[in-house]
Amino acid sequence: MKRVGLVRTLKGTIIFLAVMAAVYYIKIFPSRIEEMGRQNAHLSWLVAPGIIALSASAIPIAIALALFWQICTEIGRDNSFCHKNAGRLTGIGFCALVDTGYCAVGTVTLEILAGSPVWVLGLLVCTVGLAVALAAFLLSHLVLKAADLKADRDLTI
């Protein structure tokens, strides 16, 4: 695949992921939380705080998608291996860690307050979040090494 096609595909994927996240965070998650509140009357007091807390978890996701967009822009400029992209990948890794930690705290809180069996789903989300963070940190390291090699090569005549 040519560079232009790759960048278009990656940016299209980012747009798709952003739209899907918006649908989930605006429609599906709130309706599911409200439904759980209706099914369990003793948990109805958790509906509004639950929607607010879950909505806050969208912030690191939005930041990570914006950083990934910037990486794709650099790829489009044929500047894939640069220190900025290494920093952006590190930022994506930290966003994944923050969201993973937030998910773990939320899962434990729901378990304590409501005895909710969401810990299985929370464990899955935390595992995926850790995998994304590790991959981002590893890629950041590799991009940084490649940027250094590129800089050395550019200085060699």
Give the assembly state of these chains: single chain
The run of helices and strands is HHHHH
Low-confidence stretches: none
Distance between the termini: 30 Å
Radius of gyration: 20 Å
Q: How helical, in percent, are the residues?
A: over 70%
Our count of helices gives 5
Strand content: under 5%
Structural class assignment: mainly alpha
Major sheet, described briefly? none
Taken from the alpha-carbon principal axes, the silhouette is elongated
Give a count of the beta strands, DSSP E runs of length 2 or more: 0
Provide mean pLDDT, rounded: 93
Please give a structural write-up:
The protein has 157 residues and is mostly helical. Helix 1 packs antiparallel against helix 2. The protein has five helices and no strands. 86% of the residues lie in helices and 0% in strands. The longest helix is centred in the first third of the chain and has 37 residues, at 3-39. The two termini are 30 Å apart. The chain has helices spanning 3-39, 47-56, 58-76, 83-114, 119-155.
Give a concise summary:
The protein is mainly alpha-helical and 157 residues long. The protein is built from five helices and no strands.
What would the keywords be for this entry?
about 160 residues, mainly alpha, 5 helices
Structural topology:
Layout: H1 3-39, H2 47-56, H3 58-76, H4 83-114, H5 119-155
Helix pairs in contact: 1-2, 1-3, 3-4, 4-5
